């Protein structure tokens, strides 16, 4: 069944436009399938609407004004009757359509019957759930126990791994400290040996310097003495000193 709404798209009356918008908007809100038929641009639509509006529903001048509502060929009413049906929550009855589930137009007995059926279904589900509830609780407790054991084992394993890692780290640090001590001792021994060698070389150089200094001093003293002696003795002494050197 298709709802037909006859309206005038180019009407100059603000009141008619408002009524048409009210009808169309309400049908769209209810998600009712309908068809708009324009009487301003289509003469056939105008004539069909005038011919199918019942005589008792026509105004005094005999010309019905839009919007006019039909269900297929059956006349539903004009805006005034539509507005009254909307106020009474009986729009589906006005349109000749069955009300959808949950609508306010559904008889109270049917709504209560559906609610009673839902309650019975809920009670049956609760009973079935009660029978299997104990088994589910036992299974949940067993699963929780297994999970707790796994968590305990999982906690112990990381603790052991941490202890082993700490021990390995301590051993590595001890080995490094021992190696550092050995290296330090080796460096100290090498420095001592080098100091001994340097001291020995310095001593040799000092002795050589002293020896050369003493010889030079003796020679100088001899020269001075020779300068004080007579020439004859001086020449003989020079020969002796030269031969000694």
TrEMBL record:
UniProt-listed Gene3D superfamilies: Glutaredoxin
Q: Where is the composition biased (Acidic residues)?
A: 120-191
- Annotated CDD domains: GRX_SH3BGR
GO cellular component terms, A-Z: cytoplasm
**Designated name of the protein:** SH3 domain binding glutamate-rich protein
Tell me the InterPro entries matching this sequence: Glut_rich_SH3-bd, SH3BGR, Thioredoxin-like_sf
- Where are the stretches annotated Disordered? 93-194
Which species does the entry assign this protein to?
A: Acanthochromis polyacanthus
Q: Where is the composition biased (Basic and acidic residues)?
A: 105-119
Q: Enumerate the UniProt keywords alphabetically.
A: Membrane, Transmembrane, Transmembrane helix
Transmembrane helix recorded as keyword: yes
TM segment ranges = 203-229
The entry's family comment says: Belongs to the SH3BGR family.
